[in-house]
Amino acid sequence: MESSAPQPPLAAAAIQIDSHLDGAEARSLAEDVLDGLTRPFKELPPKHFYDARGAQLFDQICELPEYYPTRCERAILSERADELAALTGAVELVELGSGTASKTRVLLDALSAAGTLERYVPVDVTESMVRECAETLTAEYPGLQVHGVIGDFERHLDHVPPAIGPRIVAFLGGTIGNFTPGSRRRFLREISRLLGPEDFLLMGTDLVKDPRVLEAAYDDSQGVTAEFNRNVLRVLNRELQADFDPEDFDHVALFNEQHEWIEMRLRAKRELIATVRGLDLCVHFRAGEELRTEISAKFTPERVDGDLSAAGLELVHWLTDPDGLFALTLSRRTSR
Ligand code: SAH
Ligand code: TRP
Fold this sequence. Notes:
three-stranded antiparallel β-sheet
């Protein structure tokens, strides 16, 4: 009898996916909007950019000539992945904000070639990306287990499954720069709790450089970043029955020299009142008034080192591309 039971396809057996979002994301969006759009200086947290369309637009951003971080980070990984694999002996890779995991393949290739790779754990708020990347990666890497975690890495890190051996936790793309300095250190401390004595954090950070290069990376000539920025308004329209016309807003990206971060804003072209029906809220914008949608902090070696030590981590390797535009750091828990 049992032998005739249908066997699951191989790939399906290799995949486990947990979702921790059920309704919580909608609540968090509502709270963030209520909180952020009623302030004197309007602001929204960046995670709401990434619905399925936002994720696609971000993928296009990564291909833009002006957006150097993706190219640089991929170049560093290609150059050093074998060394990282040998040094860490990692059997699993946990990735926070994994997206399409396109650069991750370089690491998976190296771990696979080293013969240690067993499991990949992508963590992302965008459900479609976690599911798609689980499907494609299990097909591309025979024998690979994928345990996807659909959730908010700021709230759900305790749902990352326990390590099955030495692990690398990867946090790529300069996403750490999207935190404000205080919450950045707090978050790094949370991450360090995922690390055992034999584990490593591999983190990508964009470096301080000529403001013109930085601003172009966040305000490309084709307008893809502008569309990505405005996409957050489409998310509010759909999820909270708001009536924003994205075309009423200009995309603004500027380098704040004092804080050394890029700020992304949406600037109202005219005075307007938007209604957010789902929250029973009317939001007034003066002509020229801005809504801050994201910061992207740029780093110096000292800043990275300071943040890591404040979180109980110590630098093991500092890797940059030949032009010194982007850095990848390998760190581990400070031994005491
Ligand atoms: N790692 C990829 C993608 C970076 S974009 C790269 O380097 O190219 C940032 C990614 O983080 C997106 O996939 C987005 O969906 C995810 N993300 C943003 N905020 C998040 C949060 N609070 N919790 C989980 N994932 C988040
Ligand atoms: N983590 C990426 C960064 O800071 C995200 C990003 C790139 C982004 N371009 C953007 C976010 C434009 C909002 C708008 O570089």
